[in-house]
């Protein structure tokens, strides 16, 4: 295999991936219809259904333009030696491999962020604003970008530097030592994400005493789930869309409710949503998900360790000197078909887990309340309730609303 051959494979993978994504979007678009399907009667009215269709269409064109520009930019960077040029630029200022890699990715991520900024702004302040979802101020938008960028530099840069340092110290044990670093980080974040990172962006306050908390405590006691940490997050600071999530293990586990969720749902519907989240914990979905992610990460690092030292990876990108960072770029693209295949399996498992968590809520609390909550959340966020099955297979980590309602035996 020559560097030219690797270059053609890289460009081929990028092209096939781009075409596949556009084809899936086309299939999904073909499912749209101005006529309210019978299956949606009682969930959407005709006016709300038209609004949801228009919302999906308005999101499609910016998404298509953004992905097309990203694809063209990536292909040009590879074909015209753009990555090699940034590598040379970094080498003009730094000598140490870690410093070169950090400078290289710093330049790439900076311009990537600049490229995506107009689309992020348009999505937030034009599309989301048009449909009444946006509650983000310009100040919050800017601060979110700055905080996110700083976290990427500190956390992402720190982990990258540590992995390169391990690689420089020993190529023989590189893959499993790097794997241990990432494994520790993943487990740490699973336990402390909500208490360490979320407060940088949102306020979380303990759920106030009252009927809702009493109902939650009553249900938790009924199913033997020790729950001391129920928090309300000011999601309305950015969007009117409601949500809830479960995080952590052991004494660090907590359930977080968006304030928008509390405002939109009844007491019984909120508890039904929590019953679903507790179902994930009881069925050990969170633990198994992390274990599977760790196994995938270990497999990826092992494959990476087999080829990272090959100078052909850097040469394929037009560079004269081999660098870890260039090899990482090339490997990321070469590995993407495997990553896509594994992702399909993870999505399949995730959808199965969602059905099981719904069933847990049905058997231990109230399936009808859960169904009503899912309907309200879908309608209030103008979700696409008629996605193409192939599109669902590739992209959805959750079953569609109609699939979940059928499994709950609320519709035929």
UniProtKB/TrEMBL annotation:
Domain Peptidase M48: 206-409
Keywords: Endoplasmic reticulum, Hydrolase, Membrane, Metal-binding, Metalloprotease, Protease, Transmembrane, Transmembrane helix, Zinc
Topology class, membrane: Multi-pass membrane protein
Binding-site positions, Zn(2+): 276, 280, 354
The protein's name in its UniProt record: Peptidase M48
Transmembrane segments: 6-24, 64-86, 98-127, 148-168, 174-193, 290-312, 324-344
UniProt-annotated location(s): Endoplasmic reticulum membrane
All residue ranges annotated as the CAAX prenyl protease 1 N-terminal domain in the record: 28-203
GO biological process: CAAX-box protein processing
Cofactor(s) demanded: Zn(2+)
Primary site of residence: endoplasmic reticulum
Family per record: Belongs to the peptidase M48 family.
Domain of life: Bacteria
Active site: 277, 358 (proton donor)
Cofactor notes: Binds 1 zinc ion per subunit.
One Pfam family named in its UniProt record: Peptidase_M48_N
Entry's Gene Ontology molecular function annotations: metal ion binding; metalloendopeptidase activity
């Amino acid at each position: 295999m020559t560097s030219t051959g690797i270059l053609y494979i890289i460009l081929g993978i990028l092209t096939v991936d781009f075409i596949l994504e556009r084809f899936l979007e086309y299939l999904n678009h073909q499912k749209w219809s101005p006529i309210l399907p019978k299956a949606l009667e009682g969930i959407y009215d005709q006016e709300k259904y038209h609004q949801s269709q228009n919302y999906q269409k308005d999101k499609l064109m910016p998404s298509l333009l953004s992905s097309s520009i990203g694809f063209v930019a990536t292909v040009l960077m590879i074909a015209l030696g753009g990555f090699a040029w940034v590598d040379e630029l970094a080498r003009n200022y730094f000598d140490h491999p870690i410093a070169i890699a950090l400078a290289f990715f710093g330049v790439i991520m900076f311009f990537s962020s600049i490229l995506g900024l107009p689309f992020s702004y348009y999505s937030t302040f034009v599309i989301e604003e048009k449909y009444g979802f946006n509650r983000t101020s310009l100040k919050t938008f800017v601060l979110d970008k700055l905080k996110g960028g700083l976290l990427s530099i500190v956390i992402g840069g720190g982990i990258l530097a540590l992995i390169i340092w391990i690689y420089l110290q020993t190529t023989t044990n590189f893959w499993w030592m790097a794997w241990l670093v990432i494994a520790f980080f993943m487990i740490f974040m699973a336990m402390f994400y909500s208490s360490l990172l979320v407060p940088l962006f949102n306020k979380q306050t303990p759920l106030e005493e009252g009927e809702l908390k009493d109902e939650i405590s009553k249900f938790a006691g009924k199913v033997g789930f020790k729950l001391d940490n129920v928090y309300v997050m000011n999601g309305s600071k950015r969007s009117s869309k409601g949500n809830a999530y479960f995080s952590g293990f052991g004494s660090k586990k907590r359930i977080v409710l968006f304030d928008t969720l509390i405002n939109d749902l009844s007491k019984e519907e909120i508890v039904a949503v929590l019953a679903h989240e507790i179902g994930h914990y009881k069925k050990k979905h969170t633990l198994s998900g992390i274990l599977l992610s760790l196994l995938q990460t270990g497999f990826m690092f092992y494959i990476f360790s087999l080829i990272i030292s090959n100078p052909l990876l850097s040469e394929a990108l037009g560079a004269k000197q081999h660098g870890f960072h260039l090899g990482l770029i090339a490997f990321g693209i070469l590995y993407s078909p495997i990553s896509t295949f594994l992702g399909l399996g993870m999505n399949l498992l995730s959808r199965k887990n969602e059905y099981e968590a719904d069933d847990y809520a049905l058997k231990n609390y109230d399936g009808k309340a859960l169904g009503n909550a899912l309907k309200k959340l879908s309608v209030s966020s103008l979700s696409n309730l008629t996605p193409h099955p192939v599109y669902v297979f590739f992209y959805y980590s959750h079953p569609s609303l109609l699939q979940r309602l059928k499994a709950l035996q609320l519709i035929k």
